[in-house]
Design brief:
Alpha/beta knot, 7-stranded parallel beta sheet, about 25% helix
Length: about 220
């Protein structure tokens, strides 16, 4: 298969329009990949595109037949030290949106969300998606509707009887230190369903990806 560069150009995309080319994108296409054609995507669709003769615009051509492999899963997660890895890997797995959740043990409060969005864009370009996941505003754990949530339940590593198979579109993963006792109680009272991830304690970013792998069919 020919390695054609894929560029995210935003969600306002349709055949025939011209999109101004950023300098770094032009450099990537013409100097790194040495091409003047690429695939442009956004809003769930992919198009053929070419660089204009004056190198100032990307001209959007016809729509391709490529179907967006993304899903409709929302990943709710406590910001962590390696949030960049979590964003990268979860984007590659096709999720639709991220919701940062401030839990009792959340310690990473100063995340550069602009950089996280750029990481999501790059991961979407690489992973053959036609869309980039949203990164929504942070919310407090206490403000979450937990009634229809599946959460990564580390209690399984301590012998708790926890399911390992669910269908859901909402996954919640805790911080490095795990959920507090009060948060576990809130999850149980609300009817949230705990998802077992094995008999070992996983890093938060690993737990997110293992949970997604168990949910995505």
């Amino acid at each position: 298969m020919k390695n054609i560069p894929r560029i995210f150009v935003g969600n306002d995309i349709q055949p025939g329009i011209k999109i101004p080319l950023m300098r770094e994108t032009l450099h990537y296409l013409t100097r790194v990949m040495r091409v003047r054609e690429c695939l442009a995507f956004g809003d769930g669709y992919e198009y053929n595109a070419t660089i204009s003769d004056d190198d100032k615009n990307l001209i959007i051509g016809d729509k391709t037949s490529h179907i967006d492999p993304s899903n409709n899963i929302t990943l709710m997660f406590a910001p962590i030290k390696h949030t960049d890895d979590l964003i990268n890997m979860a984007t590659q797995m096709g999720i639709a949106r991220f919701v940062p959740v401030i839990t009792a043990r959340t310690v990473a409060h100063h995340i550069n969300w602009g950089r996280m969005q750029k990481i999501a864009v790059e991961a979407a370009e690489q992973s053959n998606r036609n869309s980039v996941p949203e990164i929504l505003e942070s919310v407090k754990f206490s403000d979450l509707d937990l009634s229809d949530v599946v959460f990564a339940d580390e209690r399984a590593a301590y012998g708790a009887d926890v399911s390992t198979d669910f269908n859901t579109t909402k996954i919640l993963v805790g911080p490095e230190g795990g959920f507090s006792d009060e948060e576990f109680n809130a999850l149980d009272v609300a009817g949230a369903r705990g998802l077992g991830l094995g008999k070992t304690i996983l890093r938060a970013e690993t737990a997110a990806i293992v949970a997604l792998a168990k949910i995505i069919k």
